[in-house]
């Protein structure tokens, strides 16, 4: 299947008034995770633009350290994903506690970068964009168009770069389960 880039969402859709933001239900982790995954898929191009701007600023100020930091994070991420596919205990951890898995990747990256170079580059160039994405995805309420686009991604009608990343983190459910859930919601 061909990879499709999600469209850039309008600023007033990406960051509307406060009426479209709400704190997630911390007691229902599944619902919160669903909101985060849905928003990551729907606004992925907007998130990429914000992250690219921050990475560009930090990269302009400290290009070598930014290159080292980015390389370390990518290699650690790929290493964790590879290990989780080969070790059952890591696979279960990744599936049940995706946030813990991402925090482990970030902490491992932090320690390697502190050994190799500038920690502030890691904090502002890599961690800050990820934190901003997570906060926005956690607080932004979904709309009908968001849900429809995510169902298309989930049942395999299209595949985006964020979809591949979420698949690597095992945050995408099986296509059949998503299709069944979608059909049951349509019937209601």
UniProtKB/TrEMBL annotation:
The chain crosses the membrane at residues 40-61, 67-85, 97-113, 119-139. Keywords: Acetylation, Cell membrane, Cytoplasm, Cytoskeleton, Endoplasmic reticulum, Membrane, Transmembrane, Transmembrane helix. GO terms for biological process: negative regulation of transport. Signal peptide: none annotated. Its main location: membrane. It is found in: Cell membrane; Cytoplasm, Cytoskeleton; Endoplasmic reticulum membrane; Membrane. The keyword Thylakoid does not apply. GO terms for cellular component: cytoskeleton; endoplasmic reticulum membrane; plasma membrane. The keyword Transferase does not apply. Belongs to the PRA1 family. This is PRA1 family protein. The gene is Arl6ip5.
């Amino acid at each position: 299947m061909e990879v499709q880039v999600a469209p850039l969402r309008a600023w007033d859709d990406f960051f509307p008034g406060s009426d479209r933001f709400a704190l997630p239900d911390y007691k229902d982790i599944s619902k919160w995770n669903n909101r985060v995954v849905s928003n990551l898929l729907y606004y992925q191009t907007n998130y990429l633009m914000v992250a690219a701007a921050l990475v560009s600023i930090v990269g302009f100020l400290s290009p070598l350290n930014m290159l080292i930091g980015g390389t370390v994070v990518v290699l650690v991420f790929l290493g964790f994903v590879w290990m989780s596919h080969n070790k059952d205990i890591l696979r279960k951890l990744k599936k049940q506690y995706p946030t813990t898995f991402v925090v482990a990747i970030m902490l491992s990256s932090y320690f390697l970068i502190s050994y190799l170079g500038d920690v502030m580059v890691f904090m502002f160039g890599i961690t800050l964009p990820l934190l901003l994405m997570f906060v926005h995805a956690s607080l932004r309420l979904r709309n009908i168009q968001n849900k429809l686009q995510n169902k298309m991604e989930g049942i395999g009608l299209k595949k985006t770069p964020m979809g591949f990343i979420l698949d690597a983190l095992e945050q995408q459910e099986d296509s059949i389960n998503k299709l069944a859930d979608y059909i049951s919601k349509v019937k209601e």
